[in-house]
From TrEMBL:
InterPro entries: GIY-YIG_endonuc (IPR000305), GIY-YIG_endonuc_sf (IPR035901). It comes from the Archaea. Residues 23-74 form the GIY-YIG domain. This is UvrABC system protein C. Pfam families: GIY-YIG.
Amino acid sequence: MEILDDKIRIWLESAKFVKPVSGVYVLYNRKKEAIYIGESQNLQQTFTKYVDTDFENNLCKQKTHSYQREFVDNTKERKEILLEDFKDEHNGKIPICNDIIMTSSH
């Protein structure tokens, strides 16, 4: 299920070409299930780091097959809205990789 209005892009084919601007992004697995909702002040820098380090060895994010992105100024607020909307549509659950991060940081 697509979360953003942006078209779904194949990860390795286009991740290196994203603009160096702030925004939010959604990572999807092969089944087009959202596995992570993230935000960055510089999408190009974040995506380049993900490509160069294989998602910083994050096994959950390594399942990424495609993504969407949206350029916004207030990234933290937009990410929170997307997470809340996702929870509303998925019986209170958040994407699996967000859940793993939240669980391991508490």
